[in-house]
Amino acid sequence: MLVVERSRRAELLLLSVLALAPAAAPAQTGEPVVVKLNDAVGDSLDRAERDSFHLFPNTTGFRDAVILALPGPEFYAEVTLDEADTTAQVYYRIQPGQLERIRALIDNREQVMAQLQSDSSSARALASFWHSIEDSPLRNMTSEPPVAPEAPPPPTEPVTIENRYVFTLLGMTLGSGAGGCVGTRVAFKQVGSTGGCISLPIYAVNHPLFWSTACGLTTLGSVAGYAVGDRLDHKTASPTTLPDEGAGWRTGCAIGAAIPGLALGTVFAVLAIDSQGQIENDPWRLTALPLALTGLCIAVEVTTIGYRIGRAIDRRNAEKAEAKRRAPGH
What's the predicted TM-score (pTM) here? Predict the structure, then answer.
C-alpha cells in the first residue's frame, strides 16, 4: 500500500514538472544571440582588444562590446561606454558584409597593419568604413532615428582618384574629338582646289575661331568629366588589397592592351587629319593637334581598360585563395 502511494506521488510530481516546464523555459523567438567574432576575441571585445585590432576607433569612452544577432539579416554591436561615474550603452547597426570585414580585420591583423603603414589610401578607406558604422549610433536596437551628434560630421574626403582619372580622360577624349571636328567645320573655308586627276580642296583657316572652339570644347569635356568622377570618388570607397592579391594580370593586360590601343589611336588620328585636306595658311599643320590628342586619349583609354580587366582577374584569384585559406581544414 505504501509503495502504491509513493508511486502515485512520484507520478503527480512528474506531471507537475512537465506542466511547469514550458513556462520556465526561456522564449527563444526574437531574443538576441551573441555572435563570436573569432576564437582569439571570443564573445566580448574589451578595450585592449579594441585597440589591438583597431576596431570602433571613433567611439569615445569605449569599455567593451558584443555583437548581437536578431532574426533578420542585420546585426547590432552593443557597446558599453564609461561616462563619469556610470556606464551607458549605445548600439551600431552592422550589415552582414560589414561583419565579415570586421572578422577579416581580426583574422589578418599583421597584413592589415603592414598595408596601413605603406598605403595611405587603405588607411582612408578603413577610416571611411568605420565612419559608416559609428556615425549613426542608436539608443537601443529598436530605435530608428540616430542619436543626434553634437556637431555635424565633417565632409568625407575622397579615398580614391580612379573615377576622376577615368572620367577626366573620357571627357578629354570626347572634348578634343568634338573640338577638332567642330573647329574644322566652323573655321575652315575652301579657297580652291589642287586640280589634276585627284582634286583635293584647299582651305584657309580662321585660327582664333578654330583654337577657341577646339580648346574650349576640350576644356569643357575635361572639367565635366572631372566633376562627375570627383562626385563618384566621394561615394566610392577604395577596396582593401587582399593579402594574396598580386599585380601580374593587371600589368600583363595593360601592356597587351597598349599595342592595339596605339594602333587604334594612330589610325583615328591619321584618318581625321587626312580628311582636313590641304590648309593654305597652316604649313605646320598645327590644326591637327586636337585630333592627334584624341588619338592619344583613345590609346590611353584602351590601355586603361586592359589594366582594369587584369585587376579584376587579380582580385578574383585573391578572393579564391582567401576563401580556400579560410575553409575548414586549411
Answer: 0.50
